[in-house]
Amino acid sequence: MSTKENLPYQVALTLIPKIGDVLIRQLISYCGSAEQVFKTPVSKLLKIPNIGKTLALNLQDKSVLDKAFAIIEEADRQQVDLLFYTDKNYPNRLKQLYDAPVLLYYKGNANLNHTKTVAIVGTRQCTEYGRNVTEELVEDLKDFNPLVISGLAYGIDIVAHKACLKNDVPTLGVMASGIDFIYPYQHKNTSIQMQETGGILTEQMFGVQPDPRFFPQRNRIIAGMSDVTIVIEAAVKGGALITAEYANNYHRDIFAVPGQLGKSFSEGCNKLIKEKKAEIYTSIKDVVETLNWDLAGHEKSNSFKNTLDLTNFTDDESQVMALLHKNQVMEIDVLAWQSQIHIAKLSSLLLNLEFQGVLKSLPGKKYAISVR
Q: What does CATH list as the number for 3-73?
């Protein structure tokens, strides 16, 4: 069955009461497809771990398909892409995460699998210093052409988005509401401009208004889609610190801008640095070195790719090298998922390639081609 034909069943799964992203993936893993989940008898569903009688009976309710078709029609009307986690355009960085949303609503023209992704987050009550640092950071990022991700909120978020528009850097706003409900409303025009080269994205269905419980969920998407999260200004409690905590759990790089002692908007960043949950950010050079983004090295890497001979590698080694050629820098978990090589075998393979001098390990369990 094609992705388009399976989409109503995929959307319908997200409408079932008392079901979550983890259980949906588990059901599809056992049943083979979203359609088969609805066609599997209750007796067989009950044999699947964590599937109780109430959920099994709910899955027999075909009326959710009518709601799913209505959502698909609305998506077509609003030119919104519905991205299920098995879709080729679904963000690969999210696929590896156990708590990733199975369905995303997306509108825009950004490549959600951009080779470089950076989250810029911070307090809603930012200072002039925070605005200046954010604008300077985005300007410095321009040469590396990343996708900049933030939350479309007041403060650092919107400063980052607007700076991206000014510098022609694609930017993605991840929302805690339905894609048709821009919050805050004052940022609607900015969100429309962002869609030309970037976009807006959410896991909430049409018409959903922002709710306090949705913001932490939104923050996990920001952290999960980003190679690095940079916290500009943050209080000890707040969304920026939640995003950083998710990034830490996902083994992603985190930077924090040090702030003035005794100021509430600096306490969060200073705390992250003190607890060694974030590297100190002093300039774009810090990010470039950590993520292996050196421009000169990038040019050499491209040249190296064109002349690399893979004939002396095993099939598995060639596959890994090809993936690293394509993506430049990859985490071991992503390599394992895309290559379908068991993590234990992959670890040994990577070590062997490192001994051969053809690749190098980077902070955060990442690997890259070694340019010689």
A: 1.10.150.20
